[in-house]
Design goal:
Shape: globular
Oligomer: single chain
Distance between the termini: 53 Å
Strand content: under 5%
Helix content: over 70%
Structural class: mainly alpha
Low-confidence stretches: 1-81, 191-196, 310-333, 553-561
């Protein structure tokens, strides 16, 4: 709470935070077309009602191309990635957005640790591939359909709240009603003991835990990837994104540290394993409710501040009629349906490349996480022990990510978008291969490599996965959306970040199901999983190179026009 109060006070007294020499201009550029049409049309931008000189827009686009590994000559050092690069008039927006990201990631961390504890401890790690394939994937598709339908009815503000509210409502109901009555509402099968049946049977029996897992998986895709980044991309200019986005994660990476610490304190106060865990869930739910309320307030503050800046700009400059660059789906009065939008967006090479990046990351994460959770269950069998280890894991992720985030801007600055985006898959591969080796040896010859050693290597590998995502993968991926059209930023982004992410997880889950049915256990499949992992990394790197070349070629065409 002290951190929240400090950030809010800093936003209100921003003149005391930064030095002189800041610019008053905070116009927001909105490029509402896909890149190919942008470069075929006269380059003009809309400032939500005001025009900006063509040279400024072109210079801003050129800087973005340089960030993505293009041939633009503008150096990112001119803009800077430090907190001092934030202008005085930008402080409120930056503080509100950073605080919102902190809260989104805090909630994500708590529900991630809780869902794994409930399902793995009661149903086994082998049940996760089945749950993600037949539970999470259909739910994600349904979520996209409902979200797209609501986007045709509500404006973006109502849509934000309508998406946010159901998640926090469910977590409250689960903690205060479903879990305390689990023995009554769970299915009871004669002669079946906990954990003695197959994974599918356990998932049906502990249906409330399965539901919690599904909802939390949807939150993982709808929280930060969809809701937060839609707000960020909507109110942030390209020049601000280069300074803001890497720094957002600095505050966001504090969330796993705080979440892990709070969870450890609550678990240590438990009086008994079962009753105590229910008590912990209630306290965690109360904190989540507070986070949801603050997120809603921050959303209103962010758009109020953005509206005030726009009105101030209009009072300083005469209003001109803007020339919008539009696509067929943007120009009509009627909002395009999901099917119509997907048909148009499927023609975008940029969105296809981004989709393959998201698919690659989620497939790789799923392949290694399930193995790691299988080892974790063998070492820590009770819910309290499992949760305590996960809370320690979250703190390690936050601390490591915070350190890397301080150097990530320099990495992006020196290497550019294309090379920086390849670092995540290559680093993940370098740690995953030793992990697969340890799992194979420990499963066959535990006297050579004990299970605990394989668990520690797997923990390191999963820390690297999370840290790379928060510090490098997410900011770089979001930069790729900025110059795309409005449909690409809403329906296209929602489909990629929610459905695409679930499709990646389900693809890996389908493979794991087949291997588990053949071998009988997830740990026996490590060799086959490793081969599929290497192939996915190769496709991921290829997609990054393709996207980098697309922007490189378009920059050359633009400069030469």
């Amino acid at each position: 709470m002290k951190l929240l109060l400090f950030l809010l006070v800093a936003a209100k007294f921003e003149p005391l935070v930064l030095a002189k020499g800041t610019s008053r201009r905070s116009n927001r550029a909105t490029i509402t077309s896909s890149l190919p049409q942008t470069l075929k049309s006269p380059l003009s931008t809309s400032l939500t009602g005001c025009d900006r000189p063509i040279g400024d827009a072109k210079r801003e686009f050129t800087n973005l191309a340089a960030l993505r590994g293009g041939k633009a000559v503008t150096s990112l050092k001119d803009n800077g990635f430090s907190f001092a690069s934030i202008q005085r008039t930008e402080v409120p927006r930056f503080v509100y957005m950073s605080l919102m990201m902190f809260l989104f990631i805090y909630v994500y961390t708590t529900v991630r640790d809780t869902k794994d504890t409930l399902v793995v401890s009661n149903c086994g790690a082998e049940s996760i591939p089945f749950l993600k394939m037949y539970g999470v994937m259909p739910s994600a598709f349904l979520f996209i359909v409902v979200y797209s339908k609501l986007s045709l009815v509500f404006d973006k503000h109502v849509l934000f709240y309508a998406t946010l509210l159901p998640f926090f409502t469910f977590y409250t109901i689960f903690a205060f009603f479903l879990y305390p009555n689990k023995d009554t509402i769970h299915f009871q099968f004669n002669g079946i003991l906990d954990g003695s049946t197959g994974p599918v049977t356990n998932l049906i029996r502990f249906w409330t835990f399965s539901t919690y897992f599904i909802v939390s998986e949807l939150w993982a895709s709808a929280g930060v990837p969809l809701l937060f980044w839609q707000v960020a991309n909507d109110i942030t200019t390209v020049s601000q994104a280069k300074r803001f986005y890497p720094l957002f994660a600095v505050t966001g990476n504090l969330a796993p540290i705080v979440s892990g610490r709070i969870m450890s304190i609550l678990i240590n106060k438990q009086k008994a394993s079962e009753l105590g865990f229910g008590w912990t869930l209630k306290r965690i739910a109360m904190i989540k409710i507070g986070c949801g309320v603050i997120i809603s307030l921050l959303y209103k503050l962010i758009y109020t501040e953005a509206g005030n800046k726009f009105n101030a700009t209009l009072s300083d400059k005469p209003q001109k009629r803007s020339q919008m660059i539009t696509t067929n789906t943007d120009s009509g009065k009627r909002k395009a349906s999901l099917t119509e939008s997907m048909r148009v967006l499927a023609q975008s090479k940029e969105l296809k490349s981004i989709a393959f990046m998201v698919l690659g990351y989620n497939i790789c994460i799923e392949l290694t996480e399930v193995l790691w959770k299988g080892l974790l269950r063998k070492v820590y069998s009770t819910e309290s022990e499992y949760m305590k280890y996960m809370s320690s894991f979250s703190q390690k992720v936050g601390c490591t990510a915070l350190v890397l985030q301080l150097v990530a801007p320099s990495i992006i600055n020196r290497l550019g978008w294309t090379i920086s985006s390849q670092l995540t898959p290559l680093v993940m591969l370098s740690i995953a291969l030793p992990f697969f080796f340890c799992v194979v040896i420990s499963n066959g010859s535990p006297e050579l490599i004990p299970t605990v050693v394989a668990l520690h290597v797997g923990t390191l590998q999963n820390i690297v996965n999370k840290v790379a995502k928060y510090s490098m993968f997410d900011p770089l991926k979001e930069m790729a959306y900025i110059p795309l059209g409005s449909d690409a930023k809403t329906k296209g982004k929602a489909s990629i970040d929610v459905l695409g992410a679930r499709l990646g997880r389900s693809t890996a889950a389908c493979l794991q199901q087949i291997l588990v049915m053949i071998s009988g256990g997830i740990l026996d499949c490590a060799t086959s999983i490793a081969a599929f992992y290497v192939g996915t990394i190769a496709l991921w790197v290829s997609s990054v190179k393709t996207l980098g070349k697309l922007f490189d070629e378009k920059t050359i065409d633009n400069d030469g026009s």
